[in-house]
Design brief:
Number of strands: 9
Keywords: Flavoprotein, FMN, Oxidoreductase
Helix content: 25-40%
CATH superfamily: Electron Transport, Fmn-binding Protein, Chain A
Radius of gyration: 21 Å
Number of domains: 1
Number of helices: 6
CATH architecture: Roll
Strand content: 25-35%
Order of helices and strands: HHEEEEHEEHHHEEE
Structural class: alpha+beta
Protein name: Pyridoxal 5'-phosphate synthase
CATH topology: Pnp Oxidase, Chain A
Distance between the termini: 40 Å
Enzyme class: oxidoreductase
EC number: 1.4.3.5
Largest sheet: 9 strands, antiparallel
Cofactor: FMN
Bound molecules: flavin mononucleotide
Amino acid sequence: MTESLVVGSIRDLLRGLAVFDTELPEFDVDAAPSDPVALFVEWLTSAVEAGVREPHAMSLATADAEGRPSSRVLICKDLAPDGTWYFATGAGSRKGRELAATPYAALCFHWPEQGRQIRVRGAAGPADAERGAADFLARSPGARADALTGRQSQVLDDPADLDAALRAAHAAIEADPGVVAPGWTVYGVRADEVEFWQADRDRRHTRLRYTRQDDAWARHRLWP
Ligand SMILES: Cc1cc2nc3c(=O)[nH]c(=O)nc-3n(C[C@H](O)[C@H](O)[C@H](O)COP(=O)(O)O)c2cc1C
């Protein structure tokens, strides 16, 4: 098969895939609350009730010191009334290092079953160590052992090294169930913008952006 045939068939495959091909909820912007946290909770509750898979999974985009972006999927761990979204990870990971260099991040939730997307953007940084420890200790033993290896995002030369590190981590947890991985960190993204996006099957999509202004939020509809 030539390269152009492969590329051509991929193009056809992509073009043939459906999008927004389901019953979609309404989004009445005029009835939207003045606070994006309230609307997020409303949409999250509706996503859970609608059976959206892993609605707490979100992409996290960070940038290195040169402004070069990278993104990955994480679990959202918490949301505070002041408009801070939380996740947990290792400070030594690529994202941890990028956040140390450039303390800003963007999050994106995508709930395809409802044609919904929520984008969050703001200053990002570590929460206090107690919060990181509490998150760590609430993890399953397997997840704690995984984090305790402390080498996320490093090159793994030999899978046997991972097996050995996991065995050592499980032994450390058994010896001291209160042990906490030193780099395990809860990070918060304090939103200065939150956008709610609702797909429409006729492509008249609805967008509402909240922008932080001192102690209140400004609301604007956006062109789709
Ligand atoms: C659904 C899903 C949830 C994930 N949740 C987390 C998480 O909460 N924390 C984490 O460190 N990695 C999580 N990961 C793995 C990350 O996507 C990523 O591979 C890892 O954190 C390393 O990223 P980095 O090299 O950019 O730092 C998750 C992956 C998926 C697909």
